[in-house]
């Protein structure tokens, strides 16, 4: 099943630091993107337009172990973004769309769910690999929009674990490199 994790994080705001392929609207004050090791899941929210039908709520504020965009295709690895709305107000009715190579028996390539982006703290949106069928290599895009306005678009590349050996000891997948 798909495991997307959403959690509101309260950390200091940093200026927008985007990769060349990112798209960021003036409605977004701050954006960080990166890779995490699996955090503790403490609950779920309904997300009927995802394979799992839910998104995970994770404990605490998982820190990025890397700001890189090459994500190892390994169970327990997560990746995503932290964003804050400009102007101090919250953005409601935000739709997150995760686009990826064909996944599972149905060949799903896109999943969506609702969220909000805080104007007072960074809001976190993560995708975590929990099942083997999710480990599809290739381009992955996480996009957030309100109506027709794209607020942000962040690109990742899911790769074989051997492509990012520097992350193996951090999240414990050294055995996959032999």
Tell me what you see in this structure:
By secondary structure, the chain is mainly β. Helices cover 2% and strands 51% of the residues. The protein contains 1 helix and 12 strands; from the N terminus they run E-E-E-E-E-E-E-E-E-E-E-E-H. It has one helix at 168-171; strands at residues 3-8, 23-24, 28-37, 41-46, 54-58, 70-72, 77-85, 91-103, 108-117, 123-128, 138-146, 149-159. The strands form 2 sheets. It has a 6-stranded mixed beta sheet with strand order 3-7-10-1-5-4, with no helix packed on it. Strands 2, 6, 8, 9, 11 and 12 form a 6-stranded mixed beta sheet that branches. Strand 11 and strand 12 (149-159) form a beta hairpin. The longest helix is centred in the C-terminal third of the chain and has 4 residues, at 168-171. It is globular, with a radius of gyration of 15 Å. It starts with a strand and ends in a 7-residue tail after the last helix. The model is unreliable at 1-17 (pLDDT under 50).
């Amino acid at each position: 099943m798909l495991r997307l994790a959403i959690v509101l994080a309260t950390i200091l705001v940093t200026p927008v630091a985007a990769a060349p392929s990112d798209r960021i609207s003036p409605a977004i004050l701050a954006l960080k993107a990166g890779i995490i090791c699996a955090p503790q899941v403490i609950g779920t929210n309904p997300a009927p337009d995802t394979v799992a039908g839910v998104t995970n709520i994770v404990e605490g504020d998982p820190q990025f172990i890397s700001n890189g965009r090459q994500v190892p295709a390994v169970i327990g690895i997560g990746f995503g973004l932290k964003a804050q709305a400009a102007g101090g107000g919250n953005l409601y009715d935000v739709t997150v769309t995760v686009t990826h190579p064909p996944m599972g028996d149905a060949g799903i390539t896109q999943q969506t769910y609702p969220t909000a982006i805080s104007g007072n703290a960074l809001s976190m949106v993560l995708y975590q690999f929990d099942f083997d069928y999710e480990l599809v290599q290739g381009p992955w895009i996480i996009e957030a929009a309100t109506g027709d306005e794209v607020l942000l678009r962040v690109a990742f590349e899911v790769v074989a674990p051997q492509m990012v050996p520097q992350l193996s000891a951090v999240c414990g997948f050294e055995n996959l490199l032999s």
